Model the fold of this input.
Amino acid sequence: METLWQDVRYGIRTLVKTPAFTAVAVLTLALAIGANTAIFSVVNRVLLTRLPYKQPDRLVMVWEQNPHRKFDRNVVSPANFLDWQDQNSVFERMAAVYDGHITLTGNGEPEQVPIQAVSPGLFSLLGIDPSLGRTFTAEDGQQGHDNIVILSYGLWVRRFGGDPSVVGKTIQLNGQAMPVVGVMPRGFELFVKQGSLIGEQAELWTPIAFTANSRIRRGRYMTAVARLKPGITLVQAQAEMNTIAARLEKQYPDFNAGWGVNLVVLHDQFNGEIRPALLVLFGAVGLVLLIACANVANLLLSRASARRKEIALRGALGASRWRIARQLLTEGLLLAGSGGVLGLFLAMWGTDLLLGLSPAGLLNVNNIGIDFRVLGFTAGLSLLTGLIFSFTPAVAAARSSINESLKDGGQTASSAAGSNRQVRHLFVVAEVALALVLLIGSGLLIRSFVRLQAVNPGFHSHHLLTVKLQLPGSKYRQDGARTVFFQGLLRRIEALPGVRAASANSFLPFTGMGAATGYEIEGRPALPSSQQPVVDVRVIAPEYFQTMGIPVLRGRTFTAREFSEISHVVIINEAMARESWPNEEPIGKHVTINMKDENIPSEIVGIVGDVKDTGLDTTPRAMAYWPHPELAYPFMTLVIRTTSDPLNLVASVRREVWKIDPDQPLSQIATMDQLLSKSVAQRRFSMLLLSIFAALALVLAAVGVYGVMAYAVAQRTHEIGIRMALGAQQRDVLQLVLGEGAKLALAGVGLGLLGAAALTRVLESLLYGIGDKDVTTFLSFAALLLIVSLLACYIPVRRAMRVDPMVALRYE
Done:
């Protein structure tokens, strides 16, 4: 320990004596370690931290799947859920969930609040107890006892001021008084984006009361969660559920033909969407760390060459090779430790920056910070980093010849240039290669994102305001009252200054919501419902296509009479026309869309352009548009075309709504441009972060090339002076030194191209419109890195070209 302490003290003194070297090395390591720690803090929270439920590894989502229709995780039929619940022997308990919005009035302005209807046993299945009151009991799942509600902690504080006496009181939801029986703990959530009908985290919960009608197989709209019994594996559970699904398929072929069951671990369901991007980013910062290690190792090799006589003298006085190597390793670990401490502070700032750059809800976490696991990661990373970049310089110094180093003049400038040169060159080649892998990866994401942004969504998104309204059933029970409300409101909005047009749609593009069902074509053989083609169904208000800028390709739009009464007419999109009438004219044909209790054939009166409804990277599906009276939903999303910034119109729209109904809230207010931007948020996030890391790698690689060439020029000053004294011109010196740097850069670029070809395939799921071997990207960024490397070489070359031969001949 005494010897170790001597090494530490000597190492500190040595580093303090060379502040420029120490600052460059520590800052380089701090940037790399800080970036790795920041990304790991996110990976730790999102991918490694257990979900806050009882034995979360035993929880699974239970989806329906239909491989023929490419539905991997489809929402569940209530009837199938009840049969699964009755017939399985692998789950301790199952629970069903479906979500929507409900209007909360009283204690402030009216508000649309996301709500989940859940099986009464859901909270006990998850192992979650309320902060106040109770959760649902089996009795609450009986008809007539289900008119109760539980509040989220956030809604309780925001809307009711955290008043504990709210439990037992009633609140007004959709105009009905509902008793509050409990408040859930802070941070509780059960948000499964893929199966959500609204795309939001619930703030209220109410119990589901299954009835005899729930056994009727019509429609799929629930999500299901289950807890595996002790000793039952996921594979065993999947096998039994496959057996049950096959039995139900035979029993109900019209509804269940082709449908199976897919079990997904709950943690994967919550975080599987972001996992590929996070792992790619984690790998990227790992490459940045390797580049930083190569840079610092080069600095230490250069420094060790300058300290050859000091090291030789220590050896001559009795220090063993291991003692010398340990001293240099200690100095390296001191650098790594200092870089780790500074990197930890940078990571705290970087984590906040990371969350700031992340779109809302993308990481699906409440708090990301530095905990003991992250501290341990940083400490271990610093230690490993110190050993990596210290090992080669320590071994090289310990193996140097004491006699040669102590000879007077034995270590001339020219001979020193050869010391460790090959090792330093290998480090530079490695830096360039690793930087190119990152540059090509970021380049692929950038080109992919540009391609995606250029995709035509099928409508004009600029100057378009969207506002969701949901009418309470207690006040608007009749279909006529709903259509009158929306048409009257749209007339008021159209009269507002700055409004060019206004309409409404039941499920707006890029909101994550929709309705789909099977359809039958008149004159063709009837098919079971499970084999019918599927169409997305949208209900629209007057002037919808004109307001959105969706082209009418053939036929006509709906008339005023068709918007005032049920007329059994429908407009389809081009995808549906291609799918069902590839060689016929669909206009005038009749289709039965199985969306209602009583389905009557609708006449096709028009064909409109396709809309990228769920994402710019998706293929348009068959879609049918009904006028609002045909299916009078109580909810609609207004679309308002404006002459200026759409958000400036929100206050005016709110006033017009409240003139008709002062208890009607507005929700999901956004511009269509914002919705489009949100749909590509994850791709933008991945592209931005990988580009930042690639830029950092490019800078570090350029610094590495510059450092090696600057050191080589300094060591070869005597040689260059001799050459110039013998008649060499500046261009000869340029060719000599720049040629050496170009060889290193070309070798690094060559290896980088091979590495990128092997590694960029992991980006395939993140790309759109280009392949992971896009030649343009590979060559463009290879040329960029080569140019930057040559520029980094040119700076020390200029210094070499200006060497005075007389001064150089005396240089040692």
